[in-house]
Prior knowledge:
Elements: H1 3-8, H2 45-58, E1 62-66, H3 69-80, E2 86-90, H4 95-107, E3 111-115, H5 119-128, E4 133-137, H6 149-159, E5 162-166, H7 171-174, E6 184-188, E7 202-206, H8 208-221, H9 227-237, H10 240-259, E8 264-268, H11 278-284, E9 291-296, H12 300-309, E10 314-315, E11 325-327, H13 339-345, E12 351-355, H14 361-372
Parallel strand pairs: 2-3, 2-4, 4-5, 5-6, 10-11
Antiparallel strand pairs: 1-7, 6-7, 8-9, 9-12, 11-12
Helix pairs in contact: 2-9, 3-8, 5-6, 10-14, 12-14
Amino acid sequence: MKDATRTVREDIDEATGAITTPIYQTTAYHYPEGEKYRYSREANPTVLELTKKIVELENAEMGVAFSSGMGAISTSALALLKPGNSVLVHRDMFGRSYRFFTDYLKNWGIDVDASNPGSNNIIEKAKSKRYDVIFVENITNPLLRVVDISELSKVAKERGSILIVDATFSTPINQKPLELGADIVVHSASKFLAGHNDVIAGLAAGYGKYLNVIDQMRRTLGTSLDPHAAYLTLRGIKTLKIRMDVINRNAEQIAEFLEGHPKVIKVYYPGLKSHVDYEIARKVLKGFGGVLSFEVNGGQENALKVMKSLKLIIPAQTLGGVNSVISHPATMSHRTLSLEERKIVGITDSLLRLSVGIEDVNDLIEDLDRALGTLY
C-alpha cells in the first residue's frame, strides 16, 4: 500500500465491527481473558493500534508509543545506554533534547560528544571513534540542516553504533530513515503526525531487538501514552499525507517569498537552492517539509515585533499543526542554551522559526508581508 492508503486504513474491531479504533479507557483487564494487556500502563488496545500504524508507515519491525516526544527520546536512550557508554549528538538540535544528553546523561556517567552543525561534521565525528549510540535529527531544529542519513548509517554500521534518528520534521511522508539504514526512528507525534495542536505524544519504531528493550524501559519508567491521546493521534494520521502535500507546497512558496523580501536577511529552508544542504536534501528527502527559519533586519526587538504584528500566523512554541505558528528560538524553544551555545549553532536574536500550516498560501504571504512592513 502507498502512504496515502496506509495513513487512512485501520483494522476493524473484531468484537464490535467498529470501523474506527475505540478508546479503551480502562486501567486493567479481566484475567485470564485479558492476559495480553493486564494493565494499561503496560499495554492498551488503542495505543497498540497506534504503534501498528507507525510500524506500517516506517516499514519497521516494531513500534512503541510514549507520553511525549521527549518521553520517546529519553526512554530510548536510557534503555540502550549505561554508565561508561558513549553517545554522539549534534549541537544544532531541539534545546530540550540537547540538554537531556549533555546535562542529564553526562551526569549519569555517559560520555557525550556534540558535533558542530553540518552533515559532514557529524559523519567525520562518527568516524573518529566508536559510539554506542548516535542520535541525530534528520532535519535540524531550528536551522534546518539536513543530515545525510544514508552515509551516516554506513559509518554507524561499520563502527557498530546504534543510529537513532529524530524524524519529527520530515514525517514518514518525506523520509523513512529506516530505509536509509537507521536502526531506530523517533517522532514527537504531537507535531505533524497528530497535526492539530491538541495532543502530546511520542513514537519510536525500528528493529525489534532494540524496541523490545525500549518497551520494557517504557513500562518501568511509566512514559506510557494515554489511550485518548493515542486515539487523537490515530485520527490525525489519517490526513497526514494530504496535509503534508499542502504543507510542503506552502512552505516552498513562502521560503521563496521571504528570500526575496528586503526586510529579510537570510532564509533557512532545505528546498531553496541557496541552502547549504540543498543537494543532500534532494538526495534523502521526498519533500522539504513545513518548517523554515528566517532572520530579519535588526535584532531581537525587530524579530519580536514581526511576530507580534502577525494577524493570521500564531505566535506559539510548537510546530506541525494545521495552523501556521511562529516562534523566536532564542527566547522560546532554545532558551535553555547559553549565549555561547547559540552562537556556535547559529541561532541569532533576529531568527524566527515558522511552521507552515494548510491555510491558503496567499493569505500567509500577505500576513508575513504586512508584519515585515512594520520594520523600518
